[in-house]
Write a structure and sequence with these properties.
This protein is of the alpha+beta class and about 375 residues long. Helix content is about 45%, strand content about 20%. The longest helix has about 45 residues, at about 90-130.
Length: about 375
């Protein structure tokens, strides 16, 4: 439970952010009051120059122009009141306010066009990533499937979260992973991993063999890179196989957050019996793939996710714990589960999502 002091700080912070656009007005009013109620030799110039520059960073072009006009008008009025309007000191002060106000307009335009380019790059990059990721079916046999992809909005860099579900002769096979690195290089690795998984899932009889195929493909991709990018390109991932019959599923975990199994209000963390390195790093420890078999009865839900979920922090730096947040709760289906998770993570972080997050939920129904 959040402490009263922390709740008050959060409320004050939110109020301040909502009213931040009033700061230029507050600076102008404060400058006039300060200037009027002090000696004529004490100037409010700092307030008059701060107002248009603050508007340039926070508000529109029109508001920035109005703030500049207001700052110049206030300075002229107070200089006239104290009889300094025609003196060298007064003219120097007014020139400084006019110059800063004009410069604020330039800054506002530069920030606007920079933001437009940033958002355009972000949209293009996300469109490329979404084109790589598949559109999943809502059901496969008795399985109900839901997926959510939550993009971070910190900058134009995108992550390498990936997911896939495929019905094969060996059962329904799933992959959720996270590429180390950002930007278009990460999307390239996602494309390689997704293509290999789609092919290997149909052909290979075991998850270990699929992992080996992914390993070889990622190593080849990494060898094509040069410089700092060569150190990136490995993938943490979980491979899942849900047989068409029976009440079990099989997992291979390569350095990824452990899946959660939800059933009758209980949450079980499907931790691997031994840790393994991510895909693409097998040369550091060969022969580490182990298949884990866990119960998956009717009514149970498997939750796979990337570290954008369990590493989401609140203002105090505390991580979100999905197992604790879901314990003792029942959901009518995988969509409701994922929608609840996104809502709770947003509440936990105060809406500050700093990493991409992929969520995949599979519920076994009867049939």
């Amino acid at each position: 439970m959040r402490a009263p002091g922390a709740a008050r700080r959060t409320t004050v912070g939110r109020w301040f952010l909502r009213h931040l656009q009033l700061l230029p007005v507050a600076l102008l009013v404060g400058g006039v009051l300060f200037d009027y109620n002090t000696s004529g030799h004490v100037s409010g110039e700092a307030f008059y120059t701060a107002a248009p520059m603050t508007a340039a960073a926070l508000l529109s072009l029109r508001a920035t122009i109005l703030a500049g006009i207001g700052a110049c008008a206030a300075d002229v009025a107070l200089l006239t009141h104290f009889g300094f309007i025609g003196k060298p000191g007064g003219q120097s002060e007014l020139a400084a306010v006019v110059t800063v106000s004009a410069f604020a307009i330039v800054v506002n335009r530069l920030m606007y066009y920079s933001n437009v380019r940033l958002q355009s790059a972000r949209r293009i990059a996300l469109a490329v990533q979404r084109a790589v990721l598949p559109r999943l079916p809502a059901t496969i046999g008795p399985l109900r499937i839901a997926v959510r992809y939550q993009a971070a909005v910190k900058d134009a860099q995108i992550g390498g979260d990936l997911y896939s579900v495929q019905d094969t002769p060996y059962g329904v096979r799933c992959l959720v992973g996270d590429v180390r690195g950002k930007g278009m290089g990460a999307v390239k690795v996602v494309d390689v991993a997704m293509g290999v998984f789609r092919e290997a899932a149909e052909e290979e009889p075991t998850l270990v063999r699929i992992a080996a195929r992914l390993e070889r493909a990622l190593v080849r991709e990494k060898e094509r890179r040069t410089g700092p990018e060569r150190a990136e390109g490995f993938v943490t991932g979980v491979l899942v196989e849900i047989p068409h019959r029976g009440g079990e599923l099989r997992l291979v975990n390569r350095g990824h957050p452990a899946p959660l199994l939800l059933h009758a209000g209980r949450v079980r963390c499907a931790e691997p019996s031994e840790p393994a390195l991510p895909l693409g790093l097998a040369e550091l420890a060969a022969g580490q793939d182990r298949t884990e078999t866990v119960p998956f009865p009717t009514g149970a839900t498997l939750l796979l996710y990337t570290d954008g979920l369990n590493e989401a922090r609140n203002r105090a730096g505390d991580f979100y714990d999905p197992a604790a947040g879901l314990a003792g709760r029942d959901f009518p289906g995988p969509d409701a589960l994922l929608d609840t998770l996104l809502t709770e993570v947003s509440r936990h972080t105060g809406g500050r999502i700093t990493d991409d997050m992929a969520l995949l939920a599979v519920t076994r129904g009867s049939g």
